[in-house]
Amino acid sequence: MEAALWYVLTGTRGGANRVRLLRALDERPRNANQLAEDLDLDYKTVRHHLDVLMENGVVESSGDDYGAVYLPTPRARQHWETIETIMEQTDDT
């Protein structure tokens, strides 16, 4: 899981936005529309990044597709120290 986190959050172009999404979801679960509005990102961009995070087991959804609420997976929570380390490093850049 740690290698996947490093890759998804730092090894690809969208890593910075994925970190922003994770920070927001750590505060409270939200749907894609709320995330787009709160982070001032395009809705399609948010959906793309959520899909990547879901494919890698970092976030999960609850509810129907349009109104689905996203939150970190239990597995991501187990590795939250790694996520925080990545977040700190991305703050330095």
UniProtKB/TrEMBL annotation:
GO MF annotation terms: DNA-binding transcription factor activity
Pfam family, one: HTH_5
SMART domains in the cross-refs: HTH_ARSR
Domain HTH arsR-type positions: 12-92
Top-rank lineage group of the source organism: Archaea
SUPFAM superfamilies per UniProt: Winged helix' DNA-binding domain (SSF46785)
Protein name: Transcriptional regulator
